[in-house]
Amino acid sequence: MASQRGEGETTTTPLEPADRERARAIPEAAVARLAVYLRVLSGMADQGINAVSSEELSQAAGVNAAKLRKDLSYIGSYGTRGVGYDVEVLVSHIERILGLTRNHSVAVVGIGNLGHALANYGGFPGRGFPVTALFDVDEDLVGIPVGGIPVSHIDDITAVCVEREVSIGVIATPPPAAQSVCDRLVSAGVQCILNFAPVVLQVPDNVEVRKVDLAVEMQILSFHVARRADEAASVSVGNNGLGVDGMVIRP
Amino acid sequence: MASQRGEGETTTTPLEPADRERARAIPEAAVARLAVYLRVLSGMADQGINAVSSEELSQAAGVNAAKLRKDLSYIGSYGTRGVGYDVEVLVSHIERILGLTRNHSVAVVGIGNLGHALANYGGFPGRGFPVTALFDVDEDLVGIPVGGIPVSHIDDITAVCVEREVSIGVIATPPPAAQSVCDRLVSAGVQCILNFAPVVLQVPDNVEVRKVDLAVEMQILSFHVARRADEAASVSVGNNGLGVDGMVIRP
DNA sequence: CCGACTTTGTGCATGCGTTCACAAGCGGTA
DNA sequence: TACCGCTTGTGAACGCATGCACAAAGTCGG
Known about the structure:
The structure is a homodimer. Chain A has helices at residues 17-25, 28-46, 54-61, 65-74, 87-97, 113-121, 157-163, 175-187, 214-233; strands at residues 51-52, 79-80, 84-86, 105-109, 131-136, 145-146, 149-153, 166-171, 192-195, 208-211. By secondary structure, the first copy, chain A, is of the alpha/beta class. The structure holds a DNA duplex.
């Protein structure tokens, strides 16, 4: 895993010009799916499987086979017609495109319940994301190690982030603190932020923010519950032909 | 459908036929944003603000003003031209569309670090989502209350979910257990699942699954880091006009 | 070496979602 | 009451993503 390291630009396999061109053109949605394919492929590799067809892989990943092939075509042609894909080759290629050949140092801010959970993941699932810094306002927490890393005070955020070359900041603070923490991360040079706080962050446009919003997820589900209840209540006129092929429970 | 439960339709404000039609047509992406608008609006209501224009609201929510208006138009016309929107009216209308006038009982499965964090949220942010059941395989945990709710054994999942009318199941187990837990939730009649396990769940098509995948989020960020590093490395030929206006750090 | 079969890679059409731009509608003012 | 300015609501254009269908390309068996 080799946690932090001296410099870290050219230690990793650099993208060749051809790939560089491609990376620019990959749709956002496809990037998310590539990460899923990667996980499925890693699992297959662990099971000793070394070849896979687009059909098999797509089913395991829960997507359309054509879409999968198109997604893979964005990163180049690495399959063999008539045979399928070499698992190892695909894994290493997706890893390269996603930038996983380089380690991304992660800082978690806000060591509450969620922060604890995140810190204890200890190098995020799928590794390549070592947590190297933890921050909180609470003086009582400072110095105490969580998941092996001692908590720093939030006022030291700039110094620590720069020193440990943090490239991804995770915000797990209460809502009111989120924007302020975000600003501090940004001025510490962090350009990628994963936000768990239910707040819309304002950032300069050179910073990438992704948000994980529990409340929103729940409310989307709630919407579907409501919609279904309504549809069920109005099954009188006749349903449209939109394929509700009724309760196929697959064990 | 409406699985079990005595009545449960008309306890809550029922959607009128006109709204029912509309709810069916709301794009998935818009639903997610409506939840965000709702939060922003609630905040405004708490601050005593009672009118807002699409411009203000859209900025606070971090979206385009035109998009916001279109999103709101999906749920009907509740603004006043020349003035804006009444905050209260909008809040209650979005709540109705999202089905938040009804309480959605939530079950959390897997009381590890993340499960603890979720249970301790204690009725999810924005309320309306009371956590009413917790499950784990670990016998040592069974009976111990977490966040006020005693943990049940996972083998009792069907009985407990039916009894407590669970409508949303949250999976926070280790990956290998996720599919099995999911199957059990489904056979207990749970139709909405929020999945934190890094696994692609296979479900019948009457079940709605949303996934929150830390690893994928991190890898998407990683991709952007890599893409940027590459773009920065190839600033020699000349950048395209696609607005990278260079490192504007706003404090 | 050839032919049949399999599976990839992709051009094209379709549909969805976003954005633009403007007419319609409402409050305030004289 | 009539006008003026402001903001909504939406028709229409655009662009992106998905899905289809097929040609290209490779393997395997004879």
